[in-house]
């Protein structure tokens, strides 16, 4: 059994993961090794969990963990969201994250945050 915590294994794993997470990149057969394949499979699995099967087509807007965190934050702050360009599969996931934020929404905290941002010259539309 190979050491899964070796620097070389980790590097190959993360190379595979990043390629699997990006639907526009194809599997690199030149780098075929256990770590790269495991990373690719994991990245592709994460992509399809958030965006649907690649065989169904690549959506106009790609959902990533960062995008989901932005929707969660919007819910926490009570902000409206723009959902144009997302598929129904993506909207199901986005709705869960946004709703999770809405459930934790505290109007007083939002007002304080907006005041702080405004003091520092940051405008929220």
Q: Mind sketching the topology for me?
A:
Layout: H1 7-21, H2 34-51, H3 65-77, H4 88-103, H5 107-119
Query: What oligomeric state do the depicted chains represent?
Result: single chain
Mean pLDDT: 87
**What composes the largest sheet?**
none
Helical content stands at 55-70%
Determine Rg (CA atoms, Å): 19 Å
Strand content: under 5%
Uncertain segments of ≥5 residues (pLDDT<50)? none
Structural class: mainly alpha
Distance between the termini: 54 Å
Count all strands and give the number: 0
H and E string: HHHHH
Description:
The model has no long low-confidence stretch (mean pLDDT 87). The chain is mainly alpha-helical and 125 residues long. Helix 1 packs parallel to helix 2 and helix 3 crosses helix 4. It starts with 6 loop residues before the first helix and ends in a 6-residue tail after the last helix. The chain folds into two domains: 46 residues, no CATH class; 55 residues, no CATH class. It has five helices and no strands. Helices cover 60% and strands 0% of the residues. The longest helix has 18 residues.
